[in-house]
Structures are given as C-alpha cells and as structure tokens.
Write a structure and sequence with these properties.
Elements (H helix, E strand, L loop, with lengths): L1 H14 L2 H9 L5 H7 L5 H13 L3 H13 L13
Length: 85
C-alpha cells in the first residue's frame, strides 16, 4: 500500500509545471505568468495588467494564491474567468 502511495505522489510531482510555479511564486504578483503561458503580447498584456492592478489593490493576492493552487491541481487556466465558466 505504501509503495502505491509513493508512486502516486511521484506521478503527481512529475506532472506539475515547475517553471510556471516558479513564475507564479516570484513574478506572478506582476502578471508575468500570463506571458509565460501565452507567449505573445497582443492579448496577454490585458490579463497581466489586470492582475497587476488587482495586486496593487491587495485583491490580487488571493488571485495569485488561487493560481498557485491550480498549478498543483493541474487545472491552471490562462484566463481567470475560465475557472468559473
């Protein structure tokens, strides 16, 4: 039973996008994680700017923590509205 649990934990750890997690922890407060996911400027700057403004208003802290949790559960979305759709 213990071996099966260790294998499950290893598979979960292998599937986590560690680069995205590092971006979220250190630069996610500024919305830089949106540029990592989308890799273009055209529509991404709006989401990054919205996240930056939300963080300046101290509401974005919850948004960034939510994004970190979503990375661990493998359900991270580029557009935050998709979480509730």
């Amino acid at each position: 039973m213990r071996i099966a649990e260790e294998i499950k934990l290893k598979k979960t750890a292998d599937n986590i996008d560690w680069v995205l997690l590092v971006f979220l922890v250190f630069l996610g407060w500024f919305g830089i994680d949106k540029f990592w996911i989308k890799k273009c400027w055209k529509g991404t700057w709006k989401f990054a700017f919205a996240k930056l403004i939300a963080n300046l208003a101290l509401v974005g802290i919850i948004w960034n923590i939510w994004d970190i949790v979503m990375v661990f559960t493998h359900t991270y979305q580029y557009d935050a509205r998709e979480y509730f759709a």
